[in-house]
C-alpha cells in the first residue's frame, strides 16, 4: 500500500495543469474578495466628525459643551472632534473644509453646514445630534414647568437611553462580517478535491477507462489499491490547500489563525470529506466521465451558494426556513468550523462540525468501496 501511495503521489505532482488550477483559482478568487470587500470595510469604518462649536451665554451652551466633550473623548467610540472658537474662525474653518459643520450653542442649539460638500452622512449625524439635544432640552423645560419634582428622573432616563441594548461577545475577538466569504472560499477549495476522488473511482472501473481495465486485471487487491490512491490524494490536496490558506492569511492579511492547529485540522478533514464525496459520485452508475464531473461541480457550487459564498447572508436564510440543509451541507459545516473557532471560547460547536464531516467521509468512502467492489466485467 505504501508503494501505491508513493506512485499515486508522484503522478499527482506531475500533473502540472491540475497543480496550476489548484493553486491559481483560490488565490485569484481570494484576491478579488480582498479587493472588493477591503474597500467596503474601509467605507463602513466610522471616523470622528470634525465640528466647530461656537458657545454663547445662553443656558444651553454649557450643557451642550459638556455633551460635546463626552462625545469628543478619544477612543473607539469617539464621535466628534470639537473645536471651540468664535464665529469668524468657525466660518473660516468651514470654508476651508477643515470642519463638517458649525454648531451654535446659546439659548438653543443650531447647526450650519456647507452646501457644496459630499459628506452628507456626517452632516446627517450632526443634525440628528442637534435635534436630539433640542428635543431633550425642550422636554426637560416642560417637565420643570409642570412637575419640577420629576426633573431628576427625566434627566436620569435620558442619560440612560443607550442602556437598553448591550453588545455580548463569546470571546475577545472582534468578528468581521466579510470574513465568512473567505471561510466559504476555503470550503469550496477543499470540496473541489472531489474531482480527484472522482477520477480515482473512474480509473478503477474497467468499463469507464482503459486504465481501469488494466487495474481490474491486476493481482493487487482493489480495496488496497483504491485506499492507497485515496490517501495519497487527500494528503496531496491537503498540502495544496495549505498553500492557499497561507496566502489568505499572510498575503491578504485575513485573520484565520485563531487556534491554528485546529484550523489546519479542519482543512485536512475537509479535504478528506471532499475526496470521499467525489469517490462516491464516481462510483455510481455508468454515466460518462464528463457527466459525473459536471454533476460534481454543480453540486459543490450549489452547496457553496447555500453556505454563503455568493450571498453572504444566504446561510441565515437557510437556517431560518430549512435548517436541516445546513446540517447536511458540507460547505456550511466547513465554513462553520472556522467561524466557531473564532467566535466561541469552547469547542463544542467546532467538534460537532468536525464529527459531521468525518461521518460524511466514512459514509461516502464506504458507499464508494461497496459500489466499486460489486462491479464485475464479462470481458476487458
Describe, in plain words, how this protein is organized in 3D.
The longest helix is centred in the middle third of the chain and has 30 residues, at 222-251. The two termini are 25 Å apart. The protein has a four-stranded mixed sheet, sandwiched between helices. The chain is elongated. Helix 8 packs parallel to helix 11 and helix 11 (260-283) packs parallel to helix 16 (348-373). It is built from 16 helices and four strands. Helices cover 67% and strands 6% of the residues.
Distance between the termini: 25 Å
Q: What is the radius of gyration computed over CA atoms, rounded to a whole number of angstroms?
A: 31 Å
Q: How many DSSP E strands?
A: 4
Q: Tell the overall outline.
A: elongated
Number of helices: 16
Name the structural class: mainly alpha
Order of helices and strands: HHEHEHEEHHHHHHHHHHHH
Give the low-pLDDT segments. 161-167
Keywords summarizing the entry:
380 residues, mainly alpha, 16 helices, 4 strands, elongated
Short description:
With 380 residues, the chain is mostly helical.
Topology:
Layout: H1 2-14, H2 16-44, E1 49-55, H3 59-71, E2 80-84, H4 87-95, E3 101-105, E4 109-113, H5 120-146, H6 151-159, H7 179-191, H8 194-202, H9 210-216, H10 222-251, H11 260-283, H12 289-307, H13 314-321, H14 323-328, H15 330-343, H16 348-373
Parallel strand pairs: 1-2, 1-3
Antiparallel strand pairs: 3-4
Helix pairs in contact: 1-10, 2-7, 2-10, 5-6, 7-10, 7-11, 7-12, 7-15, 8-10, 8-11, 8-12, 10-11, 11-15, 11-16, 12-15, 15-16
